[in-house]
Amino acid sequence: ARLLQMVATLLLLDEQLAGLDAVAVEAAVGDISRLCHEQGLTTLVVEHRPDPFRGIADRNWVLIDGSLDEV
Prior knowledge:
By secondary structure, the chain is of the alpha+beta class. Helix content is about 30%, strand content about 25%. A two-stranded parallel ribbon has the order 1-2. It is globular.
C-alpha cells in the first residue's frame, strides 16, 4: 500500500476477514470497530460475508448484479 495522506479519514478494508476462523473474525471486527470510532474514520468494507460487520455498521449496502441495494 502507498501512503497518500498523512491523516486518514477513510479506511478501506478489502476481504479483511478472509481465511480467519470465527474467533479471529470476532476479535478483528471488534478491533476494527474500536479503531474506527477512536480515530473518527469512515470505513468501506468489501467482503463476501458481510454478516460480521452488520452489527457495527451505520449503513449496509450490497452489490447484486451490478446494482447497489441498502439492507
